[in-house]
Structures are given as structure tokens and as C-alpha cells.
Amino acid sequence: MTFDQLHDDGIRRSARTIPAKYIFLDVVSFSHGRSVEAQTDIVHSLNEIVKRSLTVNNIAENRRILLPTGDGICVALLNIEEPYDVHMLIASDIVRSLEEYNRTIDDETRRFKVRIGLNANIDNLVTDINNNQNIAGRGINMAQRIMAMADGNQILIGESVFEVLHVRETYMKFFRNFPPVRVKHESIRMYQFIDESRSGLDTNVPELLKPNEQKPDEPKLSFQTACYFAQAIKYREFLIQQRDVFLRPKIIFLWMHAKDLVHEIESKGLTAYVEFSYRAGKAEPIEQLEFYSKLDFGVYEQLFEFIQTYLTTNCGYEYFDEFNLWLINEKGKDKLKKEWPDIWHRFNFEKIDNNSNPPTRR
Asked: Which of 186, 246, 340, 361 counts the highest number of beta carbons within 10 A?
């Protein structure tokens, strides 16, 4: 039997489709300004809130899969048709319980908010490598992307959920519609739950869904360019301090880190992936910068010209400070936040203090 035959046979034996409803949530700015102990307490508190809500809503253990994501949880409800709004009931209860929890906490670093995305789809029920029941498919992927557009204590829903809920008296007046949003190479529709009678619910328009003045024909940043922007923002203060280092090594430094980020994201959680930067994960940024500064002139001149051509062809100079390709201006930050919210939230850029110490490791 070939590997492909074994692989195909494994799929036939271990996967089946099942209707699933998703509540995907994570903690806003989970690691920013919080100790490891505070993060641990938040994870514990969130777990308790979610488990209590599942119990209150009579969700049997064999009708759910709980997938921890580090700073959040995806709840998959399996083949539950009644009540029709069970995912919204659970999401609303989580937001309400979280508000009550925060009132009892004096330590600001242990108060937290969550953003929530709801979706529904027929997805694949699979057995993972640890022989645990798991789920995979478009439904869960879209739930995460919808969630990523929300702010703290907001609930966004996908089109499949909206089609069921908006015709019901309980919900028909309580959704805000948005134009299709470009996320992960496709346009998706999403809606915001705005019932102000729901305790703890934030009904303001999410920052990432506010109208902007971007021209219709303005091209979106490529994935590689978005990763470059992200690394340029992340290492901004560090590179500013390196006054004795020329322009080209700084740009090569950012490009290599951007390539690392591309492969890290595309690995989808795998620990092994190709890394391009010099001694990735081992060398300090200053060591890497020194290495690129010592490259043969012809090598780094050709590499710089390639990077410069790629960046300016993709987005021109308007997103850089004074045509400086390693300093991203406010317009560039806004473009990254709008067009690549997953990358923006990955680094918690909205909380970056421009006076903070530069990062020491990638």
C-alpha cells in the first residue's frame, strides 16, 4: 500500500461530516502588560465561565468539542438543532458572566474581555493524532476569521447564522450589517449582534469594520508585504536606535524576518517550518543586523534592489516615513490593520507603547 492509499484510507475510516455550530472566542490583548500568573488565572477563569455556560444550556459532553487556542477557546456544538439559537445563547451568557466576573476583580491585569465569532456549517468530524475527537472544515475556519474582526465583548456572526436568526422575533431588530469584508483572500459577510438589553455586550461598531476612505481601486497589500509591515512596526524602536547601521542591512533584516513570519503563519501551528533569518530564534536582533551588515557588497546590493522593487511595486512609497523602507507611517499601519487584521492582532499592535523597550528576540 502506498502512502497516498494509506492516507486516503485513513480519511475514509476516521472522518465523517456533521452539522456544527461554533462559538469561537479569545481574550483581547491577552499577553500585553500581564504576568504569566495573571495569564494563567485568566485562562482558568475563562474555562470556568465557558463550562458553566455549557452546563446552564444543557450541552451534553458528547455533543460538544472544546478546542483550546492558548488565549481562547473554540466551542463546537455537534448536531444540535434545538434550541435554534443555542450558540447565541451561550455567547450572550459568556459575555454576561464575564461582566459579573470583572466586577469582582480588583486587579486590573486579571480583568479581561473576549471577542466572539459565531458560525455554522457542515464540517468534518475527525480523529486526531492523539486519538481524540476533533473537527475541521470551512465552518470553524470562518468562525475564527469572523471573531478576529470584533472588539472586546462584541459578538459577530457569519451569514449562515444570520440567515437563521434575523427572521426570528427575538433577533430581527438586533443585527448591524456590514459590506463584504476581504479576509484571507476572499470576501465574507458578517453581522454584529447589537441587542443593548444583553448585559455586558458592546454594541459599538468594531474598529476594523468602520468605514474608511480607501479608494476602491487601491490594491491590497500582498501577504509577504503585510508580514514585512508587521516586522517593521515590531522592530521600529530597535532599528531607530541602530544609528550606525546603514539602510540596506536594516531592510534585509526586516525582509528575512518577514519571510519567517510568512512560513510560521502558513505552517498552521506546526513547530517545524523553514526560517530564513540568520540563526532564527537563537541570535539576538543586534547579532542578526551585524551579520547582514557584513554581507558581500554585491550580495546585499542585489538583495536590497529586489526587496525595494517588490515593496514599491506592491504598495509604492506612501506607507513609509519619508520614503524610508524600514519605517512604516500611520497610513501604513492603518492599511495593515484594515487589510490583515489577523496579523495586526497577532502582535497586539494597538497596545504598543512607542516608548517601550525594543524586543530582544524574534
From this structure: 340
CA 60 to each of CA 16, 65, 77, 252: distance values in angstroms, whole numbers, following the listed order:
20, 10, 9, 54
- pLDDT exceeds 90 at position 75: yes
C-alpha separations of 156 from 27, 99, 116, 252 in Å:
15, 18, 6, 39
What is the residue whose three cell numbers read 454576561?
A: 96
Evaluate the omega torsion of the peptide bond into residue 83 and state whether it is cis, within 30 degrees of 0. Answer: yes
User: In whole angstroms, what separates CA 4 from the centre of its chain?
Assistant: 33
Q: Which residue reads 434545538 in cell numbers?
A: 82
Are residues 87 and 118 in contact, defined by beta-carbon separation less than 8 angstroms?
yes
Q: Which residues contact 91 (CB under 8 A, 6 or more apart)?
A: 23, 25, 116, 118, 155, 193
Nearest to 112 by CA among 65, 53, 44, 66: 44
pLDDT digits (tens, 9 = 90+) for 25-40: 999 988 888 899 999 9
pLDDT in tens, 147-183: 999 999 999 999 999 999 999 999 989 999 988 887 7
Alpha-carbon distances, residue 360 vs 129, 241, 288 (angstroms): 35, 13, 11
CA distance 60 to 78: 10
Instruction: Give per-residue burial for 213-228: e unless 16+ CB within 10 Å, then b.
Output: eeeeeeebbbbbbbbb
Spatial contact of 156 and 191, defined as CB atoms under 8 Å apart? yes
- Confidence band, pLDDT 50/70/90 cuts, at residue 227: very high
Determine the pLDDT at residue 315. 85
d(CA 203, CA 198): 10
Cα separation values, 175 from 2, 193, 238, Å: 52, 5, 44
